[in-house]
Amino acid sequence: MSSNLHPMLNVAIKAARAAGAIINRAALDVEAVRISQKQINDFVTEVDHASEKAVIETLLTAYPGHGILAEESGSEYGAKDSEFVWIIDPLDGTTNFIHGFPVYAVSIALAVRGKVEQAVVFDPSRNDLFTATKGRGAYLNERRIRVSKRTQLKDCLISTGFPFRPGDNFKQYMAMMAELMPRTAGLRRPGAAALDLAYVAAGYCDGFFESGLSIWDVAAGSLLVTEAGGLVGNFTGESDFLEQRECLAGTPRIYGQMVSLLGKYSKFASAGDKAAVRQATADASPADAGDEATADAADSATTPPDSAADEPHNRPTFAP
């Protein structure tokens, strides 16, 4: 840890590395890890729980008066009325982890009065540490990072996440990918949103979009992107996105181009745009004309609540 970093960021780094050590030990024999299923295709392991416990203990030892909002335990721990709330995903990319696919991370953010001010995304398999403090820039392993300089979508690599839950609007997501794939240099689906956002901040990818994400998936990564000179918001370009379950990020020029293409798929799009999307998805697959649920889903948002996102944790409202 560095004496030049904000003290709270230093504590978050300590917590992330403690969690990373647990994850790396478990990765040596991943087949021995106990796995349970929160819902179809949504897994949690004993490693998620152990990692989260290590993070929470480290943070509350240093700051016992702070609040906690964590993926597995919600707001069970920490103060309930603090202006300081730590937002934790102890193992983003659990499905990758249980298959031995080395793309996963620990994500820790600190929101102060609803604004994210500190961020850590730690990739334990590569020992890559992404950090940011609001107003002080974003870093990878103590090296300053910036979003890429690309300005044309045709030159860009865009990352995303595929729908995987029952009830997800697969047709709409296929339409979104059809908008982007012919216009880009490539579309990628690594499987850990926190790392996707960190990679946008580092310039490895030029943009990112995904729906159905929870606040702990995007809180830390969103600060990395903005501190690296990028933009982040929902599909219509609004910046108050953390709890809206849709996220779009990119370099300033690419962000604007993606909003112009994907904005009509947002749950906040105009009624006319939503109607056009419904008609387009219906026209694209006449063989599925009987699938009325798909057409209706475009108007109501693309994704049902995931396992913990909408449980009654008495969560505070956050803004980026």
Layout of helices and strands, plus pairs?
Elements: H1 7-27, E1 35-39, E2 42-45, H2 46-62, E3 67-70, E4 84-92, H3 94-98, E5 105-112, E6 115-123, E7 128-133, E8 138-140, E9 143-145, E10 157-160, H4 170-180, E11 186-188, H5 193-202, E12 207-211, H6 215-227, E13 231-233, E14 246-250, H7 252-262, H8 271-284, H9 292-300
Parallel strand pairs: 3-4, 10-11, 10-12
Antiparallel strand pairs: 1-2, 4-5, 5-6, 6-7, 7-8, 8-9, 12-14, 13-14
Features:
single chain; 320 residues; alpha+beta; five-stranded mixed beta sheet; 9 helices; globular
In short:
The chain contains nine helices and 14 strands.
SSE string, helices as H and strands as E: HEEHEEHEEEEEEHEHEHEEHHH
Give the class from helix and strand content and strand pairing: alpha+beta
Poorly predicted sequence stretches spanning 5 or more consecutive residues: 286-315
User: Kindly, what is the distance between the CA atoms of the first and last residues, rounded to a whole number of angstroms?
Assistant: 26 Å
Strand order, largest beta sheet: 3-4-5-6-7-8-9
| Tally of contiguous helical segments | 9
User: Compute the gyration radius: what is it?
Assistant: 19 Å
Task: Give helix % range.
Answer: 25-40%
Rounded mean pLDDT score: 86
- How many E-type strands? 14
Overall body shape: globular
Taking the sheet with the most strands, its summary is: 7 strands, mixed
Strand content: 15-25%
What oligomeric state do the depicted chains represent? single chain
